[in-house]
């Protein structure tokens, strides 16, 4: 059976199953919804192809002690779905930190996820938890871009 996306509610349900409070994430149920030529981009990397995308999810699961996602808002416009989320993660031997972001998911004509673009300020959200570094980072960002 070919697995396809048809509604934003389906995306919310699938994403909710990936992240388990207090446990490692598991993408195995959602991978079949991705197109073999998926283009994934975020603040750190650009990945093309389901094998490389799957390897990225496995690396993230290995590195994370816990990873949780709270989907705050979701909207759909034809073949594009937008999610606004808060991802709370804890790497081994480090405290939990939250990353605030959004994802744009593009479906192909058949309903497979052909592109996913995640937007977030990785360094700002992580540095905010480090008193001196966080203030310095925010000052530099304000001075440079503000």
What do these coordinates show?
With 146 residues, the chain is of the alpha+beta class. The protein has one domain: Nuclear Transport Factor 2, Chain: A (Roll), CATH 3.10.450. It has four helices and six strands; from the N terminus they run H-E-E-H-E-E-E-E-H-H. It has a six-stranded mixed sheet. The longest helix has 15 residues. It is globular, with a radius of gyration of 16 Å. The model has no long low-confidence stretch (mean pLDDT 86).
How would you concisely characterize the structure shown here?
It contains 4 helices and 6 strands, in the order αββαββββαα.
Overall shape: it is: globular
The SS-based structural class is alpha+beta
Total strand count, please? 6
Rounded to the nearest angstrom, the distance between the terminal CA atoms is 51 Å
Succession of helices and strands = HEEHEEEEHH
The helix content, as a percent range, equals: 25-40%
Uncertain stretches: none
Please identify the top-level CATH class: Alpha Beta
User: Would you give the CATH topology?
Assistant: Nuclear Transport Factor 2, Chain: A
Q: Which strand order does the major sheet show?
A: 2-1-6-5-4-3
Second-tier CATH architecture: Roll
Percent range for β-strand residues: 35-45%
Largest sheet: 6 strands, mixed
Average residue pLDDT: 86
Q: How big is the Rg?
A: 16 Å
Number of helices: 4
- Total discrete domains: 1
